[in-house]
Specification:
The structure is a homodimer of 138-residue chains.
Chain A lengths: L1 H27 L4 H31 L4 H7 L3 H11 L4 H8 L3 H14 L5 H10 L6
Helix pairs in contact in A: 4-6, 4-7, 5-6
Chain A binds a DNA duplex (30 and 30 nucleotides) through α4 and α6.
DNA sequence: AATCGACTCATACTAAAGTACCAAATCTAT
DNA sequence: ATAGATTTGGTACTTTAGTATGAGTCGATT
């Protein structure tokens, strides 16, 4: 919000400055009105593109962010969530065990809990549900 | 591509027209140069936003659309792709068999082929790879 | 100090998933 | 029409996945 205000402030200031500059330039005869128009047009076209890109970029980031509240709401523990992430990447229990430096038994336990909490019968379903709940960063 | 050319053609034409109009308006004294500048600035700012939105929107559609060429490139048959979609939704072999009205054996065969062609060891990995290859509609 | 939740791990199962190989019916394009 | 790909299905087998249960450790809370 602060940023937005700042940007628009600078913008307004720039516009006023530009107007003053243009008046001076036209009066002194150093610049043709047409060229000034072209210059302004290009400048603001670029500005429009820039602003729109910024806002859409932020939108994208928000959309691909994980819903932390949902994770808490589901009762997923830290470790369980880590396992879920590994599951989503397509790793087997053995591989996850190696990545997290624990035994396969431990992973099986975690996976079972994840399945329960995500209301899934298989790991593939758990991943799909997790995706719909937006608790995966991809 | 054709569209792009058309848009830019119309755009160029509009710019030229605007310049002519501005010259006439200024000469006849009906319009102050400053106001003309403001008008042009706002117009092109809006245009920039519009163009950027359009391009990003298309990008989004493309991103969520299925890359048909990739499917062909991978050598995935129609049926195999159908099975892949069911897999991605988290269904078991038995469930997929019921959905597609064939035996579980058949599904196993298809799944094996899908795993080969997607270079995956497990179905979870196949789904993940498929997602990265953008051959899934979600 | 006792409790509770999270994490760890094991054993013993059952249930899916996946592989290998084969074989027949059906489609498709030359 | 016939070769090649696709689809279907089976048997037999190995490997993962998942369940159930119990239990020890550790840190935070009460």
């Amino acid at each position: 919000m602060k940023k937005t205000v700042l940007i628009f402030g600078v913008l307004a200031f720039a516009v006023v400055g530009l107007l003053q500059l243009s008046r001076y330039a036209v009066i002194t005869g150093n610049l043709q009105t047409e060229w000034l128009l072209v210059f302004v047009a290009i400048l603001f076209l670029g500005l429009g593109v820039f602003l729109q890109r910024r806002s859409l970029h932020q939108e994208k980031i928000v959309a691909s962010e994980v819903n932390q509240d949902k994770i808490v709401e589901l009762g997923l523990s830290k470790r369980e969530y880590e396992v879920l992430l590994e599951m989503a990447r397509g790793y087997s229990n053995k591989e996850i065990a190696d990545h997290l430096f624990v035994s396969e038994s431990t992973i099986k336990t975690h996976v079972s809990h994840v399945l329960e909490k995500l209301n899934a019968k298989r790991r593939t379903q758990a991943v799909q549900n997790a995706k719909e709940l937006q608790i995966l960063p991809f």
